[in-house]
Specification:
The chain has 10 helices and 15 strands. It has 290 residues and is α+β, with helices and mostly antiparallel strands. It has 2 domains: 6-224, Hsp33 domain, CATH 3.55.30; 230-289, HSP33 redox switch-like (CBS domain Like, Alpha-Beta Complex), CATH 3.90.1280. The strands form 3 sheets. Strands 1, 2, 8, 9, 10 and 11 form a 6-stranded antiparallel β-sheet that branches. It has a 6-stranded mixed β-sheet with strand order 7-6-3-4-5-12, covered by helices on one side. The chain has a 3-stranded antiparallel β-sheet with strand order 13-14-15. A hairpin with a 6-residue loop joins β13 and β14. α9 (242-252) packs antiparallel against α10 (270-277).
Amino acid sequence: MSNPDQIQRILFDELDIRGVVCGLKQTCNDCFENHDYPIGIKQILGEMLAAISLLSSNLKFEGRISLQAIGKGDVGLLLAECTHDLDLRAIARYEGELSPEAGFVDLMQDGQVVITVESKKGQRYQGVVPLEGDSLSACLENYFVSSEQLPTQVHLVSDGETASGMLLQVLPVEGTAEDDWERISHLASTLKSEELLNLDNGTLLYRLFHEEQCRLYEPDELRFKCMCSRERSEASLKLVGKNELLDVIEERGQIDVNCQFCNAHYRFDSADIEALFANAGPGTSSSQVH
């Protein structure tokens, strides 16, 4: 992979079609390093990280977008998030032994997939992704066609250590994009998973669209960065109530808030809680521990 941890838009000069391609390597490693995930989970989370990177290219404001799959079987949760700054994180919750051959739809039978877009200004939008098709890519394609009436093609691949994705979509404009889309989507359908995973973006673009007038924008960097903080932990604790928190500290000596994404630990003692509810800002007697 010659374009790891980058995302690039594809510009078709004369077509009402947008494209974006991404690759992830160090980001996958950083997301997985604090978890003993089996290879099957790593592959699926890699695809979800690639998918949410592609979907983030639609963000027009400061905020974040998440892709969440909630299951009723051995896999209870799959979650990938991306901010407008292209900070990514992901997590999985599962039980028992999972088949390495099991794909996304196999593991999420009777489950639900939700796309959530959150603005820093408080606006929130959710869309449910039907589990239709035999892959996460197919589910997302069906979602865009049914909910936004936008013909879309999504390619996702992951080997558990690296992940790549490509999205092509008709722009919501008046025009004659139907014939163009039929041609471009046909060319893109010839893409093989090993090509998407191993070819650099320039070579990939030429391989698919060398007869089209298209080019790549300058790349943007993708990275793992957890969104947890002591301040977020304090906001969560404040919802519990001062007396309840002090009772816990009296019993246990302290309160530990652990981030399941990055394994950060935030410790709070009675002085921290008193300061929190006195609106005196964060306490200073304890700190983040890794």
